[in-house]
Write a structure and sequence with these properties.
Helices cover 43% and strands 14% of the residues. It has 203 residues and is an alpha/beta fold. Strand 3, helix 2 and strand 4 form a beta-alpha-beta unit.
């Protein structure tokens, strides 16, 4: 039986969870070593290329100014040879879709059984991407897209009300739907993700 001797890096600010995952992974003969990052002073100049797989928690509240997807995207853009995999407690399809289009190698649920996690990591190491069978996303409606486009052009909510002849409450409801569909929590993030997804052509 072949052993794969993988080197794994885990990026997670939940110390109890990350220590547990480290202990589980280290029991596998297929894994040579597991390192943890739980201090983000060196996040952008960390030697990610020293690892075969980098597991990044989607929710890095105390470690990184943005979410794990943003960190993953930065590492991928910087041309790292490591395979980036997102670990999540959220099953939101938009997060998975974002991970997929940015070039991540997998999107794994934190509640996964230990044996399945190790099997998934072996398959990713061998070159297979692990995502749901079908990542279906909520498409923005034309009105939502119009409102997000106005936000992107710098208009305030009051400006938008005057432009599209609807109440503040209606605009706020549209923005709440947009945030929910895109899996974001701010206007800036919504614009960024919509650009990533091809809703707006690059300037």
């Amino acid at each position: 039986i072949r052993s794969y001797v993988m080197k794994i890096l885990l990026v997670d600010d939940h110390k109890l969870f990350s220590q547990s995952i480290k202990l589980i992974l280290e029991l596998s003969e297929d894994i040579e070593r597991v390192d943890l990052i739980d201090d983000f002073s060196s996040v952008l100049d960390f030697p990610y290329d020293d690892y075969d797989i980098v597991l990044i928690d989607i929710n890095l509240t105390s470690l990184y100014q943005e979410d794990g997807l943003s960190l993953a995207q930065t590492i991928i853009k910087n041309g790292s040879s490591a395979k980036i995999v997102i670990l999540t407690g959220y099953s939101k399809k938009m997060y998975e879709y974002r991970a997929k289009i940015m070039g991540a190698w997998g999107f794994l649920d934190k509640s996964i059984a230990p044996g399945e996690l190790i099997q998934n990591l072996i398959e990713i190491y061998q070159g297979r991407k692990i995502f749901s069978d079908e990542v279906v996303v909520d498409i923005l409606t034309s009105r939502e897209l119009e409102i997000l486009g106005l936000v992107r052009n710098g208009l305030s909510i009051d400006d938008i009300c005057g432009k599209v002849y609807v109440s503040k409450r209606t605009v706020s409801n549209h923005l709440a739907n947009i945030f929910s569909k895109l899996g974001v929590s701010s206007r800036q993030e919504a614009i960024h993700v919509a650009e990533q997804l091809g809703y707006f052509s690059p300037e």
